[in-house]
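User: Please predict the structure of the protein below. I'd like the answer in structure-token form so I can feed it into my own downstream comparison script.

Assistant: Understood. Taking the following sequence of 312 residues as input:
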Amino acid sequence: MIRLVVAAALALAALDVAAAQTLRVGDQKGNSQAVMEAAGVLKDVPYRIEWKEFAAAAPLLEALGAGAIDTGLVGDAPFTFAAAAKIPVKAIAAVRQSRAGLAIVVPENSAIRSFDDLRGKKIATGRGSIGHQLILAALEARGWQASDVQIVFLAPSDAKVAYTQGSVDAWSTWEPYVSQEEVLFKSRLVITADGLTPGLGFQVATPDAIKDKRAQLEDFVRRLAAARAWSQSNVESYAATWGKLMNIPPAVPLNWLTRAKIRIAPIDDDVVADEQKTIDLYDRWGLIRQKVNAAEIVDRSFGAAIEQGAGL
């Protein structure tokens, strides 16, 4: 009985501390905040969430490194670069989804039919992005060199312009850009990440946040996992909500979300092994100066909260 009273008191004390603090969350438009609001999991949060929107993962990770935010969602490719650059962040949850939404697309009327047809051609993608990762993995799978294609590094907005104007032959990109090109412009997928890259995303946090705001982070990843579980069971309604938010026809997010099956997963041995594959790929291509051990850049202690939210 005494132990139960003490445990209850400690839980209440932790909640009081959490309520007094603000969790600063980095996000990209249409991502975590959108799905959490649509799922209704933000209605009773016992602390303040301060959302900060970023155009891409790289500036989000820079903000984490500078201590401007506590946590954020990024792809495995930019996370790998950040880890190699010694930015003090750790992965506390993984994002698993279909790899069919990471693809190299070409215009409907292009003569290019496969990745082999891209030899000597220009492919737009973001430097250090998951699109860059896909190109490298595809080159390696064929025994090609980096010089066998021309990689044009552009931000998504600039890549879209170059792709539309024909300044590049193909675009290595991710969702929802892939579905947008497929649905609205009849672009074709010449290769996807299936069988080539792990297709991981990560909820990452600073060591200080993990230490000082653990209660909020555990609660946040639990709610995020619950929101993603809700979105899988309510694909059509979420696609409609997302489409309105982003001012995009609902057929685009419906195509994306039906295929993606996004879920939040605990950091386990499989996640660590998949992240090590990404690290090793970049190491082989000489893109990171220092080899990183995946097990040292993750924190497995949030697994119970994630499983609770996901209903596992």
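That's the full token string. The mean pLDDT is 92.
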